[in-house]
Amino acid sequence: MSKESIPVLVGVGQVVSQWDATSGPDGAPSPLSLATQASQVALQDAGIPASAVDTIAMVRIFEDSMASSHPHGHNSNLPGTIARDLGARPERAIYASVGGQSPQALANEMAARIHAGEIDCALITGSEANKASKAARRHGVEITWADSADLPVEDRGMGDMLLSRNEIKHGLVTPAYFYALFENAMAAQADETRSQRRETMSALFTKFAAVASTNPYAQFQTARSADFLSQPSRENYPFADPYLKWHMAQDAVNQGAAIIIMSEAKADELGISADKRIYLHGAGEASDDFISERPNLDGSWAMETAISRALTQAGKTSADMAVFDLYSCFPSAVFSSMAALGIDHESETRPLTVTGGLPFFGGPGNNYSLHGIASMADHLRAHRGAFGLVLANGGWMTKEAVGVWSTAPPAVFNPVQPYATPTVKIDINPSPDEGIVETYTVAHGKAGPSAGIIFARSEGGARFIAKADTDAMTRLLAEDSPVGLRIQATTDGEINTFSFV
Questions:
Q1: Residue 400 contacts residue 303 (beta carbons within 8 Å)
Q2: What is the fold of 434-500?
Q3: How large is the angle between the packed helices 368-382 and 102-115, nearest 10 degrees?
């Protein structure tokens, strides 16, 4: 193994399946089959045998990222079964912890380990078959995912808890609610009404949908107009104000992706063409506190820090990037990253996504950004010498990993720094009596609006969370934003309830 050899990405693979159970069990994909197929494509792209791989790293699938009953049986060793089906004999295998930052974070890690001489060739892969799972259960079709292997695996588990007890007690348990809190804080900062914010989000996302409509690996190859995206309808129903269905990541997908990173010395030994090689010029990583403890809600400190670190390490600026793949689980994630990059979608002519984004390309759980990296590699191979930035996001803008990539080889390689963490957090007031609304959302169910939740600040600056009473719900549903209005609150046990003064 060559210590201090520059790491290089040499192979990429993506697959998608539209299997929906209507034709029976034949051809049903699984997380194993999709990851294996994508890995085979990546090996073929690099022109190397599976035996060249000494490390397999697998992005954690949806069912293993939460308490799950595994309705189709449990594959208790996904990295091991992928190695088996590829005919690989890796010396080490990793099953990553939870988070959409994982693909870029694993790429950063494998590159650093290659540079340190610990490994020579790493296969990073991941997949989701949520579409198949949902379809099989809906149509009563039996599919089996149960499997295992003997290969020892470093299972990194579930990772840190991303929700505080206080947040959970007040009903903040779904990603859409957290991102809606960000979105409405941004809307208030821009002095936008609910309808105006939907128009702003939809103008951004129609561009993403246009990219997905021509992407052969997209799950949803449908162009969406800004008018469709901004208007509530049966196909585009409200979920968490201001979000409608197609403002959110769609996880009903059958998708797999893989990349291969090795030392340049190994690539030379294997005769891999220079035309295949993509280099990691800069990497940055950062993580943030519980959302209720963050000083600012109209942007992301973690995104800003990770992006800045990656660009600085690459010796580049935002202006030097020819293309981006910005994580797009919700519009607020894109707006936050654009703010960190100093760009605006209305005037920006460079691509903001190379896939089409999580609502339109598809949102394969933790694995989306592996598709982003693979698609970025394809784009850069076709635009030699250009630089592209991939932003991978986990939690609610909680964990960020960034990579700056190019076909141009760097003079030197610098490993990613340890995760940056914040030094300032907001005090929480557990028993407030009054305050000013900071941001809000209204959750919707099949019967209509079901719950209103706010963040507010007490007079001394401490934050509190509260749920809306009946009259307050009416005001939260008004066209004009309630941010900045005065409220009064009462506490029962651990739950705060508020009304407008």
A1: yes
A2: OB fold (Dihydrolipoamide Acetyltransferase, E2P) (2.40.50)
A3: 60
Q: With bands split at pLDDT 50, 70 and 90, how would you rate the model's confidence at 280?
A: very high
Is 369 a residue whose pLDDT tops 90? yes
Q: What is the DSSP string of 298-337?
A: SS-HHHHHHHHHHHHHHT--GGG-SEEE---SSHHHHHHH
Nearest Cα residue to 227 out of 214, 215, 236: 236
> What are the extents of the domains in the chain?
7-161+251-406, 434-500
Element (H, E) at 257: strand 254-263
The length of the chain in residues reads: 501
To the question of domain 7-161+251-406 being in CATH 3.40.47.10, the answer is yes
pLDDT surpasses 90 at 4: no
Closest C-alpha to 452, from 467, 431, 465, 438: 467
Confidence at residue 316, expressed as pLDDT on a 0 to 100 scale: 98
CA nearest neighbour of 105 among 120, 124, 121:
124
29, two tokens: 């994909």
Q: What is the pLDDT of residue 451?
A: 96
pTM: 0.97
Closest to 424 (Cα-Cα) out of 331, 299, 295: 295
**φ and ψ of 445, to 5 deg:** -120, -170
